[in-house]
Amino acid sequence: MMREWATVVAWQDGIATLHTEAKTSCNSCQARKGCGSHMLNKLGPKNAHVMQIASSKPLQPGQRIELGIKESSLLGSALLVYMTPLFGLFLVSGLFQALFSSDLAAACGALLGGIGGFIVAKGVSMKFGDREAFQPVILNIALPPDALRVESEA
């Protein structure tokens, strides 16, 4: 089970709106000054994700919860997203090469097959993405931010 902590933004009628931040390895790498990836990460948008998930327990804004998703569904999604366009690229490129005997036709076929593979992957993910196996589940709920109060006697 893959685990990630999220922060509750809002909770209403059993639906929690969550905010998660994607972590990159750039924060732990020592070669930040000479690394092109670190510079691109600084220029690009921050990888923050907002999602909604069903929660029967009432949650407060600022509260942290731990989400989990099965590795098999994550690997299946990655396989679909990466392999479908690649398969389409090779299939249509080979078909165009065999039909037209031209490198230009093979290049056009590769472009069409790759785009077609992305479209097929998107359609399949839209159809199967709502299944329960592909949805994150709440594993742990932390205390609300105002639940603990420390008083010191001075």
UniProtKB/TrEMBL annotation:
InterPro entries: RseC, SigmaE_reg_RseC_MucC. The keyword Transmembrane applies. It holds the Pfam family RseC_MucC. The chain crosses the membrane at residues 74-98, 104-121. Keywords: Membrane, Transmembrane, Transmembrane helix. It comes from the Bacteria. The keyword Ribosomal protein does not apply. This is Sigma-E factor negative regulatory protein RseC. It comes from [Curtobacterium] plantarum.
